[in-house]
Amino acid sequence: MKSHGCTLDCFGCCKLNVEVENNKIIKIEADKNHPYTKGIMCEKGKNHFKRLNDKDRLYYPLKRQGEKWISISFEEAIDIIANKLKYYKENYSSNVIMHYSESGSGSILKGIEDIFFNFYGGITRANGGTCWNAGIKAQKYDFGCNKSNFIDDVLYAKNIILWSKNPANSHIHLFNMVKKAKEKGSKVIVIDPIYTNTSSIADIHIKINPSTDAALAMAIAKVIIDDNLHDTKFIKDNVVGFEEYKNYLDTLDMSYLCTECGVDMNTVKDIAYLYAKEKYSTIYIG
Ligand code: SF4
């Protein structure tokens, strides 16, 4: 039995146990003893084995020739890329090469590209991105850093708000923990315009109008501040621009916000009170 990390583009980074016989993989399963993976593998993970043995699996690089793709050797592919890199560096500068990367699989090999391009002479990199980087930037802006909780912490939340998130399909390890938390008595609130597999376990499903999340968030914040449910000490110690935010909320009409997001006033109040009155609530954003 060999131990591997899942190689797919997923933050799960599941630990998989791979059984090999006569140099051939005969079984892949999720590690039951791993604290995150807990023996659960998603559909994409289950397809690793099928993909390995698929008749259409690519074993060699493909090169475009007119309208067709032809199979070439790895040596030829490396030569093509190396010659291009040499050409641009000799005729212009290494900086005319632009390298863009996002998170992809979180394996150790992800760091190798930086070492490679450093040896090449330094290149141009994109600053930021639309996926992972945007999320990190937003968390740093809001909280000062982007540290997240361990997945098991969700068991301690009294209210779990899944806002535009459908972990039943996109994050099954979290979904498993949410179901366990619900069994222990946590309330599950799903905010999503459509009924999803996650909505099926929700205590409250708020069918918000598409693209009106900001209106609902501001309506909830307005109730919390107007009814003095906010933590003034925490705000005083940690929040920049609270007065400006509060003044802005004061200019907004509650019934306008409710109409905009398609959620009635009583439901907004219920959510605001559930969230603000109960110290241990969590929001997962999609
Ligand atoms: S959740 Fe699925 S895709 Fe993601 S790391 Fe685990 S097995 Fe791989």
Approximate shape:
globular
Biggest beta sheet summary: 4 strands, parallel
Kindly report how far apart the N and C termini lie: 36 Å
β-strand percent reads 15-25%
Helix/strand order, N-terminal first: EEEHEEHEHEHEHHEEHHHHHE
Indicate the structural class: alpha/beta
Helicity, as a percent range: 40-55%
Mean pLDDT comes to 92
Number of helices: 11
Cofactors, ions and other ligands in the entry? iron/sulfur cluster
Which regions contain 5 or more consecutive residues with pLDDT less than 50? none
The value of Rg in angstroms is: 25 Å
Give a description of the structure.
- With 286 residues, the chain is of the alpha/beta class.
- It is built from eleven helices and eleven strands.
- Helix 7 (213-226) packs antiparallel against helix 10 and helix 7 (213-226) packs across helix 11.
- The chain is globular and about 70 Å long.
- Iron/sulfur cluster binds at residues 6, 8, 10, 12-14, 41-42, 44-45.
Q: What's the topology here?
A:
Blueprint: E1 2-5, E2 15-21, E3 24-30, H1 43-52, E4 62-65, E5 68-71, H2 74-91, E6 98-99, H3 112-120, E7 124-125, H4 132-143, E8 159-163, H5 167-170, H6 172-183, E9 187-191, E10 204-206, H7 213-226, H8 232-238, H9 242-250, H10 254-261, H11 265-277, E11 281-285
Parallel strand pairs: 6-7, 8-9, 8-11, 9-10
Antiparallel strand pairs: 1-2, 2-3, 4-5
The structure holds iron/sulfur cluster.
Iron/sulfur cluster (SF4) binds at residues 6, 8, 10, 12-14, 41-42, 44-45.
